[in-house]
Amino acid sequence: MLLRPCHFSILSKRTASLFARPLSTSPRCFKMSDAPNHNSKHSRGDEPHQYQASSRTDREEDQWKFRAPYKIHDKGENFPVKWKGKCHCGTIQYELSRDKPLASKYCHCTTCQRMHGAPFQWAAIFHKEDINFTRGHHDLGWYDPTAKSTTHHLPCKVQCAYCRTPIMDEGRNMILLFPTLIEGINTKEGREAFAAQCHMFYPQRVVDIKDGLPKFSRLADESDLCDEETGEVMEGTNPKEKEKKEEKKKE
Ligand SMILES: [Zn+2]
Ligand SMILES: [Zn+2]
């Protein structure tokens, strides 16, 4: 997925099927080496495209402004605000219309470690339509960790172009938000709503987390699990493989 960023893999089968791309064996969260490079197409503007500090909407490269997750909702539009989030400097502010994420997980892959400057990433999955940017629409910066490019092609990492707070990972159909940006995340309600269901890429960890949650060796729900105590990968525990075997038995 990323077209299938590892982060989206915790989703249900139905949701996961939205991602047409096959799994890759790369440990990166974003697998888009086959994505077209739009650099040449975007180079004709007179402004840098690593961020969109412009209110222009007439060029081809401005079209993203009209699409989710960047589409600005009208005041009168039905967008029930359940949560609000912002970057450190406050330039970027957004609202969420969903009570809780579709899924939440911790990713221990080295790309997440490096890009977040943290032992692991905490990511909450939402539909692109669930977010409304109320500020900073034109102050977002993009980065594709696979191509190491800062133009906007999916999937990509999205940051505040001023203070560099990571805002989200944008996939083809979903976005991954970082709950620590959300107001009230440190309340009981916040902790419960955004509680992670599992860990992934656990063998790449820099810290042991013995919290009783499932620990996948690679993508969530489709790789072998790791032992809670030793962290060792337990061969043959991939839930997807097990499911396949059981289906075969029935036939
Ligand atoms: Zn900021
Ligand atoms: Zn990751």
Automatic annotation (TrEMBL):
Q: Tell me the SUPFAM superfamilies matching this sequence.
A: Mss4-like
The transmembrane segments are: none
The record lists the organism as Apiosordaria backusii
Sequence ranges assigned to domain CENP-V/GFA in this UniProt record: 83-195
Report the InterPro entries cross-referenced here: CENP-V/GFA (IPR006913), Mss4-like_sf (IPR011057)
Give the molecular function GO annotations: carbon-sulfur lyase activity; metal ion binding
Family to which the UniProt record says this protein belongs: Belongs to the Gfa family.
Record-given protein name: Mss4-like protein
Stretch list, region Disordered:
30-62, 224-251
A UniProt-annotated Pfam family: GFA
Recite the UniProt keywords alphabetically: Lyase, Metal-binding, Zinc
Q: Where is the composition biased (Basic and acidic residues)?
A: 238-251
The keyword Lyase is annotated on this UniProt entry: yes
Q: Does the keyword Glycoprotein apply?
A: no
